Amino acid sequence: MANIRTYTLIYVALVALATGKFVFFHFDFFTYGMAMAGTMGLIVAKSLLIAGYYQHLVEEPRAITYMMGTAVFMVFLLTIAAGYSIQ
């Protein structure tokens, strides 16, 4: 189990990543496409931090982590397929 210092650092990182979304969309330096791409990168980073530390996947065997990654990928494929069938 991680100590309170680790959780505090993860929390600060999550707040910084959430602030990044604000920066991408509220400053005129970034185009909409750049802001969307940057936001997607921030989403991936935040998801990995949350799954790794708050859901304790860091402490699990690698097989569990790979299984979770495969499940997330399959959900992504189902979402793409559902979006395609709606059109």
Give a verbal description of the structure:
- 82% of the residues lie in helices and 0% in strands.
- By secondary structure, the protein is mainly α.
- It has two domains: 1-55; 61-87.
- The longest helix has 25 residues, at 62-86.
- The model has no long low-confidence stretch (mean pLDDT 88).
How many beta strands in the DSSP annotation? 0
Distance between the termini: 46 Å
Shape category: flat
Instruction: Give the overall pLDDT as a whole number.
Output: 88
Order of helices and strands: HHH
What's the total helix number? 3
Question: Structural class per helix/strand content?
Answer: mainly alpha
Biggest beta sheet attributes: none
Q: In percent, how helical is the residue content?
A: over 70%
Number of domains: 2
Beta-strand content bin = under 5%
> Can you tell me the residue ranges where pLDDT is under 50 for at least 5 consecutive residues?
none
- Give me the Rg, rounded: 16 Å
